[in-house]
Every structure is written in C-alpha cells, then in structure tokens.
Amino acid sequence: MHSLFTEPFLTALLFGAITAGVPLLFVGLGEQISEKAGVLNIGIEGMMLFGAYAGFVAAFYTGSFALGFVVGGLGGMAVAGLMALLCVRLGMNQIVIGIGLTLGAEGLTALLHHFQFARSYPRLEKAPVLEIPGISEIPVLGPALFHHNLIVYLIVAATFAIGWLYKHSDIGLNLEAAGSKPGALDAAGVSVVATRVGAVLATGFLAGMGGAYLANVGAGLFVPFMTNGAGFIGIVLAMLARGKPYWVLLGALIFGISLAMTTALQVAGLNIPTDVVQMLPFAMVILVLVIFGRHSVLPAALGLPYVRGER
Amino acid sequence: MSAAPEAARSQGLPPTLMAGRGRAVAAAIARFLLPILLALVVGAVILLLLGTDPLAYYTYVIRRGLFSWLGIQATVTRMAPLLMIAAGLIVAFRAGIWNLGADGQFLLAAVITAALGPALIGSLPDWLTIVICFVVAGLVGAVWSLVPAFLKVRYGINEIISTLMMSFLGISFANVLIKLVFFDPGTTVPQTHTLPVEDRLPRLFGSTIHSGILIALAAVLIVHFVMTRTSFGLKLCVVGANPRAAIHAGLNVGFLTYATFAISAGLVGLGGAVDILGVWGSVRADWNPSFGLLVVPLVFLARFHGLATIAFVMFFAVLQVGGESAAVRLGVPTFYTLVLVALLLIFLALVEYLDYRRQVRTRS
C-alpha cells in the first residue's frame, strides 16, 4: 500500500480535490445565502447546469474564460430570476418549482447541446493557470494548491468575505432575519420579498459560476446532465454548515477529495469501477447525515412564502 | 418541512365532476387542461426556435403514440411502471412526505429482480418465481427508503435531500451490482442474465401488452381507495397535513412515517419488477429510464387523485412513446419531453396560484 503515497499520487489527489471541490464550494455558498433568507432552493441543480451551458457557450465563442464565468453566473441568475418571481414574489411552492426548474434546465441544455455540439463535442483549451510565486514551489502542496485558475483564489477569498458580511453588515443581518423572523424584518421597514429576491439571485449567480467552472475548467467541455447531483450536494453542504461559510469550504474540500479519488487511484494504477467511486460522495452525505444529522440546522421560516400579517 | 403538507392541503380532493354546476365543472377542467395547454404552447415556441414545425411534431407524436396499434401497445406497456411509481408517490405526497428518491428505488429493485428471476426460474414454477420476485422487489425499495425515514423520524431531517442522495447512491450501486456481482459472463456489455420471454408476465389478448398493466392499474386504484376511504389512509393524511395535531390526536407519528416511506418506496420497487418481468427480462449496465422525477408533476397535476393520475400518466406515456419515434424521424431528441414536463410543472403551479388568488378575492 505504501506505493499509494508517492508524491505524484498525493499531488494528483489534492489537485483533483480542489478542481472537484470548487464547484461544490460555489453552490454550497450560494445555497447557504438562499437558505439563510428562508428559501429552500431545490432549483440550484438547474441553475448550476444552465450556468455550465451558458458559461461554456460564452467561453467557446469568445475564447475568454473570464467572460465564461460571468456569462455562466448570469445564466444561473436567469434561472434564479424565475425562481424568485414564482416562489418569492408570488409565493408558489418552492419544492414543486425547484424540481420544475431543474428538469427544465436539464432538458433545455441537453436539447440545445444536441442541436449545436452533439456532432462535434468541441473542447476548450486548458484554462489559464495562475501560479503564485514562491509557495507554488513547495513539494506536493505547491502544485496541488497554487496552480489554479484565478477564480479559485477569488472564491476562497469570497468565502471569508461572505463570512464577514454575515456577521458585520446590515445585509447579513437582513438575510438572517428574512429566514428566521421575517415578520420582524418587515416591522423594521425592510422588504422581506426584496431581501429574499436578492438572496435567490445571488445564489443563482454563484451556482452558475460553479457550473461554468465545472464545464470550462474541470471538464473543458459541456456534457448534458453533467452536474449529476452536484447542486444537491451543495444543498447538503449548506445544511450541515449551519450558516457558516468556512464550514462550506471545509465540506467542499472533503467532498472534493472523495470525488478526486477516481483519477488519483487510476494514477496509482488501481482499477476500480467508476461506479464504486461515484457512490463515494453520496454515501458520504448519508453517512454524515446519520452521524451529524442532529446538528444540521435550518432557519425557522425555511420553505415558507412570506405573507404579511399571516402566521 | 411544512411545505409538503401545505401543498397537500391546498390541493385537497379535486372537485367532483358530478357537481352538476356548470361553472364548477368548467373550472375543474380548466385547472386540469390549462397547464397542459400552456405547456404545449410554450413548448411549440421552443420547437419553432429550434427550427422544427411544432404542429408536425405534435401530430406525429400523437399519431405514433396513440393512433397506431403498435404505438398504443407501446404506450400501455410504458404506463405500467409509471403507474406503479405514481401509486407510490400518491401515498407519500398525501402523507406529506416528499419521496424524491424513486429512481434509485426503482432501479435497485429492477436489478435485484433481474438477478433473482433467471436464477429461480429453473427450479421453481413460473408463478412462484414471479411472486417471489415481486415480494423481494417491494422489500428492496422499502429497505432503500429506511435511511431517509430514520433521518426524518429521529432528527427531523428533510427527506427531500436524503431521498435524492439515496437515489444517486442507489443508481450507482445498481450498476456496481451488475458489473461486479450479477453479470452474465456470456455477454460483452455487462448485464444480468435474461429471463426467457415465455417465463415473463403473460401477455394480454395476443398483444405485446403484458399483464403488469393490470397490477399497476389495480395498485393506483387501491392506493386511492386506501388513502381516501380507510382509517389508515386518513391517519397518514392527518400526519401529512399537521404532524403536531397528529401527535395530539394520539397517533404514532414515527411509526406512520416509517410506514409511509416503506409503502411508497415498496410500490416504486414493484414498478421496477413490473418493467423487468413484463418487458426487459434483464438489466444492462448504465440503464436508467429515470422515470422517478418525471412522474412527480403528473401526480401533482392529478392532485393526488387515482383516476386523474391514470389519465395523466397515459398522456405522458403517449408523449414519451411518440417522442421516441419523433427523435428518429424528426430529429428532435427525447430531451424535449423533459422540457415539456418542466413547463407543465411550472404552469401547474401558476394556474393553481391564480386559482387560489381568485378564491381569496371572491371570499373577501
């Protein structure tokens, strides 16, 4: 077994963990914002997938990865806009609409992909990498942690920024109130609907960027149904993180490792059916829920539309 | 989660069509048909944008799925597993539980059935093999829902996420079983042994339709009867509508929750058995019809009503079967059906919302 723990193996494992974990970090952080504000965003899988498609199309036709991320984010936000209109503004059932949006994004992206790319399956070139001078030379850790696209460092920084916002800004407090005591927020003269709409749109933007990362950096191409439950794992991360972004970061890294196992084990020469490895993240979610389930906390008003004066 | 019971409450029973008041009948029909109509219209716009003539597509789909003998046989055959899943979902949704893990429950039960059937058929009579397969498939589905049930009863964890996770897990696990345990060494692509055609569920009246459709129709009707006309069904509905009230009424909410999960997932598992024993006889690796989430909107559209569910499942089966031949002939992939279902779900919620608003306005 000692041959497993060679330098290339560990580097591949850690590098893969980051690549696989970053999309989860995006959706986990996004879902956390929605849930804080009291919206259970089941449609996040669809937002992520639509972002992946939009981001890929943008990057493919312009050749710009940066534009790919922005358009991916906007794509996710477009789906989120529908969710905000139907669930927050009109107060329709969040779960039914969430499933509907996810199915719709799956069908629509697969359909569009079929007409545009199904014959050619075009690939993007490798995403530009920003090596951080000095620390990227450290053995194992350097190439694994500091040879990534700029967006990776940005989203990690954003994790801490969001943590600060939650604690020390009006926005954070409004979000919190919109989820746990929407009536109080309303009484304080802040619109619950506007707060939640903002939260859902932010979620869509983050989920869409996560999807764009998955397609453009992770895979280099768009494949129908490629998110394959990553959005749902994001929901679990948000549930277990109890409103703390740092826990989402940690969770995304752990899930990233379990996802990266396939490639890493193949590098090490072990051949395990991909299905076994594909089970890992979901088995882990279940295990984590069984063990730490009692500690997962959701806001009081989660899933309920806000109607003024109603209890 | 209180969203599910709320949905159950606002949906309630569909107004009976025998009410005799023209306006009520019209309103009921509008509530059923309007979402379908809107979805078809928006779907047509999407087809137009993709450069396909929507009218040609729809007529082709209906002709192929409904107005040809081959098509109608395929449609009715397709209805069997869908109806079993629908029966399972009706139980769960009426009891306020979001069982979104049907895909995993269905596929695992299908794989176990496909492994068990050919193994038993040599030593046991046909009818006994089929009975054993059904029992085991139901149990497999039920067992796969135990973890979400436990998490919900013990820690109050929302079953939406846990059933979805178990579903993904089940789909991969089913593939692992085919590739590592139950594979038929005589085939190149990994798949289970095949149940001979003559040992499958008997066909009806010389057609290709198998008798599983009768089981499925019976399942939906029995579920409807149990959930609306028996004290057990009423207890489940009370738990779904208001768990706290259920506790005060002295109901054993924990037990009833476990029972709901087990019955719901068990019925979905039976759906897997019906499809394997009736149509396929074996399961190939990476086969996944992913019926689970597609049936959800149909059950909602039917407002959890048994007869209405049968009608909508038939509508959907026509779309799917016709859509499959349209994919070959007109070049519109079957993903389009997915888009239609999504549109249906969204317009369904919208029509329901508008209807609710209208009711509030007339009351005040």
UniProtKB/TrEMBL annotation, chain A:
A cellular component annotation (GO) from this entry: plasma membrane
Subcellular location: Cell membrane
TM region(s), chain numbering: 12-30, 42-61, 67-88, 95-115, 146-166, 187-215, 221-240, 247-268, 280-307
InterPro entries: ABC_transp_permease (IPR001851)
Main location group: membrane
Lipid bilayer topology: Multi-pass membrane protein
This protein's UniProt keywords: Cell membrane, Membrane, Transmembrane, Transmembrane helix
Recorded GO MF terms: transmembrane transporter activity
Keyword Cell membrane recorded: yes
Record's keyword annotation contains Coiled coil: no
PANTHER family: ABC TRANSPORTER PERMEASE PROTEIN (PTHR43370:SF2), SUGAR ABC TRANSPORTER INTEGRAL MEMBRANE PROTEIN-RELATED (PTHR43370)
Protein name: ABC transporter permease
Species this protein is from: Hypericibacter adhaerens
UniProtKB/TrEMBL annotation, chain B:
Alphabetical keyword list: Cell membrane, Membrane, Transmembrane, Transmembrane helix
InterPro entries (UniProt xref): ABC_transp_permease
Record bears the keyword Ion transport: no
GO molecular function terms noted in the UniProt entry: transmembrane transporter activity
UniProt-annotated location(s): Cell membrane
A Gene Ontology term for the protein's cellular component: plasma membrane
Pfam families xrefs: BPD_transp_2
Highest taxon, organism lineage: Bacteria
Membrane topology annotation: Multi-pass membrane protein
Annotated transmembrane regions: 28-50, 70-93, 105-121, 127-151, 163-183, 203-225, 257-279, 291-315, 335-354
Key word Cell membrane present: yes
Location (main, coarse): membrane
The protein, known as: ABC transporter permease
